[in-house]
Every structure is written in structure tokens, then in C-alpha cells.
Amino acid sequence: MFVAANPLIEVTPGLMIWTIVCFLITLYVLKRFAFGPIQKMIDDRSDRIRRAIAEADHAREEARALLDEHRKLIGQARHEAEEIRSEVRRDAESMRERVRDEIEADRQRRLDETRRQIEAETARSLAQIRQEVAELTLLAASKVTGKVLDSADQRRLIDEAIASLDFSRLEASQN
Predict the structure, then answer these.
(1) How do residues 94-131 score in pLDDT, each as one tens digit?
(2) Using an 8 Å Cβ cutoff, are 40 and 30 in contact?
């Protein structure tokens, strides 16, 4: 046997065998009851981490797809809003034109009606003036001649008096 200077490093075959036996028993017990469950927990955790990473990647892809879809919808909404604005502008412009045309038509109608009233009033006034001139002519003729004229003479005298009057200035001023 080998004798060592320190008793801790001294080789003792019985102690060595018991140490190896205890080590193997401990190794067996650890492998059977500790390493298996520990390895299983490590594998489970690794699987959970892989699934979480895959889910995160999938969620990121979905978020990108949703963001792209959202951007497209916003673009469509802006385009539709612009179309609506354009349509409203066109409708407003056509409504302005229609109102302008209606106002112009109403103004023209009133102007025409006023002209007709003025022409009718002028014609009535001229007829009244002619009637008064005829009566004055008859009155003057009866005073000048000193006799009352029959209806044929009155008519002839009225026609001559009216023909000699110049109504063109009155008719021209109405136009």
C-alpha cells in the first residue's frame, strides 16, 4: 500500500469501493427521480418558449396584415370622402345655376307682365284720349256750325279729327 503524508489523500480500497457504490446509488436515484423530471421541465419550458415565439410571429404578421388593411381602408375612405365632396360641389353648383335660372325666368316673366300692363294701360289711355278728342270735336263742331250733326256727319268729322292728330309721339314714348 501506498502511504501518504496526508491521511485525506491516502488510498484505502474499502473506502474507495464504498465511495463508488454510494456515487452510483446517488447517480441512479438522481437519474431516476431528479434528472428525468428536471429534463422534462426544461423540455416543456423550451416548447412553451418556441410556441410563444411562433405565436408572437403569427401575431406580428396578423398585425402587419391588419395595419395594411387599415391603411387601405383609410385610403378608400379618403377617396370616397373626396368623391362625396366633389359630388356635393357639383350638386351645389347645379342648384346655384337652377336657382339663378329660376330667378332670371321669374324676373323676365315679371318684366314681360309689367310691359303688357304698361301697353294695356297706354292703349286704354290712348282710347280714352281719342274718345275725349271726339267728344270735344263734336262739341266744337256744333258750336262752330250752330247745329247738331247727324250720326254720319259726326262719324265723318270724328274720323277726320282723329286722323289729323299725331298720336305717334305718344305711341313712341311707350316703347
Answers:
(1) 999 999 999 999 999 999 999 999 999 999 998 888 88
(2) no
